[in-house]
Amino acid sequence: MFEQPLTTTASFAEKRDILSGLLDTLRCNMTPHQGICAASDLLFEHYGCQGTLLKSATVQASETSDGTSVTFFHDPFETGALLSDFMNQAILRHLAAPKTPPEETFSFKVDDTETLICTQKLRHNEWAILVLWRKKSWHQNDKKTVTHFWKTAALLMETEDLYLTAIKKTQHDPSTGVLTWPALRQTILRRIPRLDRDGLAGTLILVQVNGMSDLTLSYGPEMEERTLNHCVAVIQHAIRPTDSVGRIGGPLFVLWLDGADRYAAAERAETMTKQGVMLPFLQPTTLSLQMGLSCREPAGFENVDDLLEQATMALKNTVPEETGRSWHFAHQTA
Asked: How far apart are the first and last CA of the chain?
């Protein structure tokens, strides 16, 4: 396994402090996924251990069954390849054992390394799994702290799953009131035939708002909601009434510029990224923007999903305004 520095067992005060720190970290991030990953990193550091977070589905009772799907939720030490066989053989066999319910937290020793495993059952026959290992035995108090944290993380995973399921059934994002991505996708699909008939282009812009997580960490979750709604107001003011705004999630928004060719879209992107989003309630704070653009020419072959994929790749080629170009076109120069 992996060598780790020795650490002392946490006292009651230290246990309370680390649990409080973990819960604060879970709250002060933009999304549950980001919060769980950040809190897990804090957990690894506090206990002087390495670890990985997994999700598994369709646990089978048969040891020879290959119907189980294991995905790495967070793998900061890049141990996925080393642990994949172990996960299938040890953890999933434990979850599929004929006993009700399986033990939530258990540990075992290999040579001088002790591994601690926490499991939580999620909806739809899924499991959230936390694996930690270090060169020192896991004290009972440590196990309780890790278990409490993982129960909370599992609750967030389920809440996010319910939230995303609800979003799929509605036309508008509950937090901001703009269209969800499925709703915006349908809007674009309805407009493309008219654009082709009139010989007009259309441009999809993927917008990333930077600095949201830092604001949430510094000022609390209520600042996130206020900032999100202000960002939406700024973006809507920067586009025409015939254009559409949607939200993918977190700090990612999608714009559809109806009838805009790549030159008009490039001018819009240049203006918006130079100005950023100034927060009047938190002066002199201005959030920077990064944009990935993808243009569909009249009678073009790209579908809406192609445009989003191209815009995503273009966004990856951008950097904040202070260090370089903050907007980029997919497969194009503008």
From this structure: 52
The per-residue pLDDT for 81 is: 60
Closest among 56, 121, 136 to 90, alpha carbons compared: 56
Element (DSSP H or E) covering residue 130:
strand 126-134
CA dist 334 and 325 (Å) reads 12
Q: What is d(CA 50, CA 158) in angstroms, rounded to the nearest whole number?
A: 25
Give me the phi and psi of 24, to 5 degrees please.
Answer: -60, -40
Chunked mean pLDDT (size 10), the chain, 334 residues: 39 66 84 87 90 67 48 72 62 64 77 84 83 88 92 90 79 89 94 94 95 82 86 93 92 95 93 92 89 93 93 92 80 52
Return phi, psi of residue 237, to 5°. -70, -25
Give the type of residue at 42.
L
DSSP conformational letter for 210: T
Q: Is the dihedral of CA 63, 66, 67, 73 positive or negative?
A: positive
Q: What is the pLDDT of residue 232?
A: 94
Of 213, 252, 228, 167, nearest in space to 32 by CA? 213
Identify whether the C-beta of residue 127 lies closer than 8 Å to the C-beta of residue 56: yes
Are residues 45 and 18 in contact, defined by beta-carbon separation less than 8 angstroms?
Answer: no
294 closest CA partner among 267, 253, 256, 320: 256
**Amino acid, res. 164:** L
Q: Which DSSP letter does residue 172 get?
A: B
Residue 282 DSSP class? G
Whether residue 284 has a cis bond before it, omega within 30° of 0: yes
How large is the greatest C-alpha to C-alpha distance in the chain, in angstroms? 72
Q: What is the pLDDT of residue 145?
A: 92
Please tell me the distance from the alpha carbon of residue 328 to that of residue 320, in angstroms, as a whole number. 12
List all residues 6 or more positions away from 45 whose beta carbon is below 8 Å from its beta carbon: none
Ramachandran angles phi, psi of 132, nearest 5° = -125, 145
**HSE value, Cβ hemisphere, 13 Å, CA-based, for 28:** 15
